[in-house]
């Protein structure tokens, strides 16, 4: 592949702000740039000479379909000989999900036959906005030291402010109370260090997959709250269910043994005129209880 012989071009590709990798016609990964290392957590030496279909990044779409097993946009681009674009959620080495936009461009040899492809991917998780927000929260003692998420003190203030908007302007928001399923059993079966790792991985998945206008925070213990602004009932359901699905498809690695499947249950409700923080929480808590009673790994809306 001529592109791999051009040292000046590869040097340039190593400093661009998008993640990028190059595969040959067998879909063997031949180049993996520095931004790809940063976005995914995988060093080049960990992925070079493996195949994209080895499911290293375990891409899933918004419905939870594993694209490396079916519906791979890179495979489609090479088969059809044309550019493909998509939004997917890749698996970071540490276990959480990262939303990325991908663009795949097929590469052709001198005879016009496809000889490989280049995939560009861009982190959509509002990283810079979140870093600034976390720095501010730290300065105000409004963050959770384990997960780096806003803590309950911050969330209490955010809920009060959003309720004021609801009362005065009719601008409702969604309140989701999430709880990790069987968290005590996870701690008992492994140890509290692994339990902490689960909390941090889930926190990263929540934080990286909400809009900059929304809030995700640790309510306490294994409970989390997500506040979703500017939504109607349909979009609220979609956004809340997406978070549940991404949590289910994240990977949790104990120090020994097979990866652990961790799910979350939720109670979700839109704020109403006349709501207080207490009535909102009570309603969400009751809905969460229904999710637990009806089999877990689900969200009950009401």
Describe, in plain words, how this protein is organized in 3D.
The chain is 38% helix and 24% strand. It is built from ten helices and ten strands. β9, α10 (277-293) and β10 (299-301) form a beta-alpha-beta unit. 38% of the residues are buried. The model has no long low-confidence stretch (mean pLDDT 90).
Cα distance spanning the termini: 57 Å
Global geometry: elongated
User: H/E series, N to C?
Assistant: HEEHHHEEEHHEHHEEHEHE
Specify the biggest β-sheet. Answer: 5 strands, antiparallel
Strand order of the largest sheet: 2-1-5-4-3
The structural domain count equals 2
CATH topology of the largest domain: Alpha-Beta Plaits
The proportion of strand residues reads 15-25%
Helix content: 25-40%
Radius of gyration: 21 Å
Give me the oligomer status.
single chain
The top-level CATH class of the largest domain is Alpha Beta
Estimated structural class: alpha+beta
């Amino acid at each position: 592949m001529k592109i791999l012989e051009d040292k000046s071009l590869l040097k340039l590709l190593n400093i661009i702000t998008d993640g990028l990798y190059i595969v040959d016609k067998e879909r063997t990964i031949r180049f993996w740039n520095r931004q790809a290392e940063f976005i995914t957590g995988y060093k080049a030496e960990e992925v070079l000479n493996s195949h994209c279909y080895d499911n290293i990044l375990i891409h899933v779409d918004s419905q939870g379909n594993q694209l490396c097993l079916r519906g791979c946009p890179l495979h489609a681009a090479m088969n059809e000989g044309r550019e493909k674009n998509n939004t997917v959620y890749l698996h970071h080495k540490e276990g959480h999900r990262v939303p990325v936009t991908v663009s795949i461009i097929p590469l052709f040899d001198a005879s016009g036959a496809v000889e490989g492809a280049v995939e560009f991917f861009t982190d959509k998780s509002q990283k810079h906005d979140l870093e600034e927000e976390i720095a501010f929260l730290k300065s105000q003692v409004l963050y959770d030291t384990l997960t780096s998420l806003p803590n309950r003190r911050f969330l209490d203030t955010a809920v009060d402010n959003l309720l004021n908007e609801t009362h005065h302007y009719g601008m409702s928001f969604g309140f989701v109370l999430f709880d990790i399923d069987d968290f005590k059993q996870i701690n008992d079966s492994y140890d509290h260090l692994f339990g902490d790792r689960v909390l941090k991985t889930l926190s990263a998945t929540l934080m990286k997959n909400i809009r900059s206008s929304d809030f995700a925070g640790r309510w306490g213990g294994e409970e989390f709250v997500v506040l979703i602004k500017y939504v109607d009932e349909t979009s609220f359901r979609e956004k809340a269910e997406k978070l549940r699905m991404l949590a289910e498809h994240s990977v949790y690695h104990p120090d020994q043994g097979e990866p652990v499947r961790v799910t979350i249950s939720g109670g979700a409700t839109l704020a109403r005129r006349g709501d207080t923080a207490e009535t909102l929480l009570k309603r969400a808590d009751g809905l969460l209880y229904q999710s637990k009673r009806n089999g877990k790994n689900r969200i009950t809306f009401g």
